[in-house]
Amino acid sequence: MIIPSDHTITYQSTYRKKLLSSQLWTGLFAFITAGLLYIITPTGKLEIATIICLLLWLCIGIVHWQYNKKYYRRLKLINSPFPEAWKRYLEEHSTYYQNLTEPEKEIFNTRVQFFLAEKKIEGIDTEIDDTIKLLVAASAIIPTFAFPFYDYRSIHEILIYPNSFDESFQTTRYEGHEQRITGMVGNRFMEHSMILSKPDLIAGFDGTVNKNNVGIHEFVHLLDKEDGAVDGLPEIFLNHSYTSGWLQAVKQEIDSIQKGHSDINPYGLTNNAEFLAVVSEYFFDNPEKFHKKHPELYAFLSSIFHQQPD
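Above: the chain sequence. Below: its structure as tokens.
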């Protein structure tokens, strides 16, 4: 990863340039429109033209604000302090965060604030607090950390369930009823939603190295989905020249899992999309062990995510 020494300068300069460009074009459009209006307005009706111009400028200003409100909001957030309690929690519960340098942690903190300001996180039949919201944001940022301006435009809300659920989204437990789903990227009528089981989300950030993190798992599915298909080939990140090599590596590891010669979660056998999500959990949560046991897969994931988390 190449991390700027001062992320505030990077973000501030980028967003200010965008706003300045928008303001210049908006002003130019308003000036030209007003000029044309006065040219075609009869001399005796200039007062009407003035009123129309004021109303037009008001509308243009509203459109400008709506189009650029994300940049105004983010510039304000950059100067907002990151809660010390959140820093301590991440230091104690996220091995990924612990391994970041101080400048990288500052970038991570800023992106947490961006994410929480722009995505709706809601508990369904369960209470959620800032800690749960923090873990959701951390899960989103970890796999995209090397892409500082990536903001998950396809997702609008994250729904937190009290526990695991079934395919009908039922969480009620009774004899003979299995609830094996701990997370899901929505589709059809829930196209822009994600569902996460609260206890499983928390378990992914227990402060120890492990291979399971449902939050990371589901956000990797979202990245995979960016090219239009959840197929284990995140083409917006994976260079086409690596595609055949990646698929071959996946096939070889699936064979090893089937023969009982791999420590990768057998859930990865489901399909290539689940394989990508499963090994991504391992890659980010226990990178040293993953690198040692699966150097080829580690190299591919480093290319996909542009990170070497160990």
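The chain is about 60% helix and 5% strand.
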